[in-house]
Amino acid sequence: MLKDKPGRKLTEYVEDYVLFDLETTGLSPENDTIIEISALKVVKREVVAEFSTLVNPERKIPYHITDLTGIDDKMVADAPKLDKALAAFLEFAGDNVLVGHNIHRFDMKFMYAKIFEYYGKVIGNDYIDTLDIAYAYLPKLSHRTLTDLAEYYHVEIIGAHRALNDCIVNRQVFEKLAEEMEHPLPEAQSVKRCPKCGSFLKLRSGAYGEFLGCTGYPNCRYTENIRK
To answer: What are the backbone dihedrals phi and psi of residue 189, each rounded to the nearest 5 degrees, phi first?
Structure first.
């Protein structure tokens, strides 16, 4: 759903959601573009619909992206252009909560930039980043990529770095993380949330030492001193 302001970043489990993933030509929402959008619609914890489309980026796909994703110029030649692909995704997503891995720092930024380019608005859906949940509830893990979490939960990895396959894996990981939130490990029972927006507080370092900062930054700039 389109709005003038982005939705909120949530830090809770919801039973109904749309989990999505993007593949892109690079890391910059301003200079790069989307080449694949995939999503799963989940109702009462069950997948009820799938969405997946390649996107014609109207430019050459860099070799290293083809090497990573397997998506090449021939594959996207007859695919819809981004305006059509975004319109189809927005219709599929509706006003559901969006879920994804590292979407706060990556996928949502692409969505905001590209949707604003075509519509003059942004996607206003609330969203959940499974990476933030993993940081809060699995603090002892040294790495928390989607592949790392899949291995931790013994979820089969199928065709990593293709959007729909990553969605399938991420949904299973999200359901496992929901169990972590309901029954936290001993080291995760002191998870702290921001009193302003409800996002997790994370240990950060600054010029004057360590402090707790909101993971909703830059939308929320709440900080808290660490008492010693």
So the answer is: -80, -5
Q: Which residues are catalytic?
A: 161
| Residues in Cβ contact with 165 at an 8 Å cutoff, skipping those fewer than 6 apart | 158, 159
Residue 214, H or E segment: strand 209-214
pLDDT per residue as tens digits for the range 188-226: 888 888 888 888 888 888 888 888 999 888 778 899 988
Q: Print burial letters for 181-208: b (CB count within 10 Å at least 16), e (below 16).
A: eeeeeeebeebeebeebebbbbeeeeee
**What does the pLDDT read at residue 207?**
82
Three-state DSSP class for residue 1: coil
> CA–CA separation, 184 vs 179, rounded Å?
8
3-state secondary structure of 44: coil
Q: Which parts of the chain register pLDDT below 70?
A: 227-228
Core vs surface per residue 213-225: b (16+ CB within 10 A) or e: bbbbbeebeeeee
